[in-house]
Design brief:
Layout lengths: L6 H26 L3 H12 L6 H8 L3 H13 L3 E6 L2 E9 L4 H19 L4 H31 L4
Antiparallel strand pairs: 1-2
Helix pairs in contact: 1-5, 2-4, 3-4
Length: 159
């Protein structure tokens, strides 16, 4: 069986998901007096302590460095993040959530859990298992596509 989905359909679904995520977090942003991007960065750092530099945020989330820098400065200034030196690399700073951010992070995580539950509502356990498998395969395929693209870039050949 062939699955005919266009790139436009995939982009549309991704954009709708990001919009729904923003709608989910917006009330917390308003309550905290903070832009969505700042809250998103804070939650990313809280949820992914292995990716704790601004460069990693940019790489994984696809955010522009200048925007990340702006929001990190704000979060540091508000006492929600602190910078720590990375041993062995004085140019890098690890970003760590502070105790002052704990309540905001917990509220954000609760909204994230609710968002995930709403996305998966109506799917059976078997469908969720199949979805996890599909996402694993898609992730693997994406990695292969990206690796092939990097090999082409490195060879100087046009695709």
């Amino acid at each position: 069986m062939q699955f005919n989905a266009t790139a436009a359909a995939f982009f549309e679904h991704a954009n709708k998901m990001m919009d729904a995520y923003a709608v989910t977090l917006q009330p917390l942003c308003e309550q905290a007096g903070m832009p969505l991007m700042a809250l998103d960065i804070l939650l990313f750092l809280a949820n992914n302590p292995d990716y704790s530099t601004a460069r990693e945020i940019c790489r994984i989330r696809g955010f522009k460095p200048g925007i990340v820098s702006f929001h990190v400065e704000r979060l540091v200034g508000e006492g929600l993040l602190r910078r720590e030196a990375v041993p062995g690399d004085r140019r890098k700073a690890r970003l760590v959530c502070t105790e002052a951010a704990a309540e905001l992070i917990e509220q954000g995580r609760a909204r994230q859990r609710g968002f995930a539950q709403r996305l998966m509502a109506g799917l059976s356990d078997a469908e969720l298992t199949a979805l996890r498998h599909c996402m694993d395969v898609i992730d693997k395929n994406i990695a292969e596509i990206r690796a092939a693209g990097k090999r082409l870039e490195g060879s100087g050949k046009d695709a």
